[in-house]
Amino acid sequence: MPPRDRLLALTVAVLWGLNFPAIHLSLEQFPPFFLVALRFALLAVPTLLLVPRPRVPVRWLLGYGIGFGVLQFAFLYLAMDTGMPTGLASLVLQASAPFTVLLGAAWLRERITARQAVGVAVAICGLGGIAALRAGAGASAGLLPVVLTLCGGLGWAFGNVSSRQAHPDSPLRFMLWMSVVPPLPMLALSLVREGPAAIGRSLTTLGTATGAWALAGLAFTVLVATVVGSGIWTALLARHPSGVVAPFSMLVPVVGIAASWAFLGERPSAPELALGAVVVAGVLIATRPPRRPALPTPALAERAVDVPSPAAEETSTARSAGVRAGAERSGG
């Protein structure tokens, strides 16, 4: 992955990390399933009216919308609404990275290199250490919210692999059209589980301070985290294998925990910060490009020419002819 794409992946990690406090603010006002429906409906309506549909198979568009949109956020929002701390949610959701690598290997037959395996293992160790520290400090949210968040991570991984299979002609239009999938099923689920009364109450009390902060959080989620962040992420998945892009998502909890500390008072300990550095190291290992073989130095080339053997002279002549042929092919 070139440096520019690595910087873009890091930017997405920052935006998605900041998105967790924004979700927390919105959940203070809206029921979780209705919030998912509202989040994607705000994108779906202008998309249907203004954005041409990308040329991708419908099954992969539906797969991306169901995995990334419905499953990920339905489980995540429900987990946070039932007691999952914001920082811990940003951590556990990153199980999507190893899920994506495994799904990519099993479904797309993508090869897992030794470097990727080591990097993912290091990052997982860091994530597991942070989770253990938070649980030991009394920050555990119980088994159910953790399981729900893991299910959200699996949904995200399914969306990643569907996006990889789609090969969209326009990643941005593909991401926007994905938003057409979640609103109706999530609204139906909200009406059944949360009820019209809870939905109406969340809409009629938007004039309060809680409502204002909820709208600000929703605006960040829709415009910044979804349009900008997911658009970049989809473009990266279209250019690189899933196993190369997915490890960057492990940086999200580092940002999420820091943002929860700054805005919500969830103070991380020094060991948590150290383990966050381990996560960063794992991502760098997993995404570092392989070294190119070194070219011979001029001094070595001169010594090779001085060797008075017929074989060396033939080798030198062949090498020179190859260089000239390569220059001709490249127009140089």
Description:
With 332 residues, the protein is mainly α. It is built from 16 helices and no strands. It has helices at residues 3-27, 32-50, 58-81, 86-92, 96-107, 114-139, 143-166, 171-178, 183-193, 195-204, 209-239, 242-245, 252-264, 270-287, 298-306, 310-330. The longest helix is centred in the last third of the chain and has 31 residues, at 209-239. The chain is globular and about 55 Å long. Residues 299-332 have low confidence and may be disordered.
Taking Cα atoms only, what radius of gyration do you get, to the nearest Å? Answer: 24 Å
How many beta-strand segments? Answer: 0
End-to-end CA span:
27 Å
Can you count the helices?
Answer: 16
Please state roughly what percent of the residues sit in beta strands, choosing from under 5%, 5-15%, 15-25%, 25-35%, 35-45% or over 45%: under 5%
> In this structure, how is the largest beta sheet organized?
none
The percent range for helix content is: over 70%
Task: List low-pLDDT spans.
Answer: 299-332
Question: How are helices and strands ordered from N to C?
Answer: HHHHHHHHHHHHHHHH
The computed structural class is mainly alpha
Query: What is the overall shape?
Result: globular
pLDDT averaged over residues: 81
Fold topology:
Blueprint: H1 3-27, H2 32-50, H3 58-81, H4 86-92, H5 96-107, H6 114-139, H7 143-166, H8 171-178, H9 183-193, H10 195-204, H11 209-239, H12 242-245, H13 252-264, H14 270-287, H15 298-306, H16 310-330
Helix pairs in contact: 1-4, 1-11, 1-13, 2-3, 2-8, 2-9, 3-7, 4-13, 5-7, 6-14, 8-11
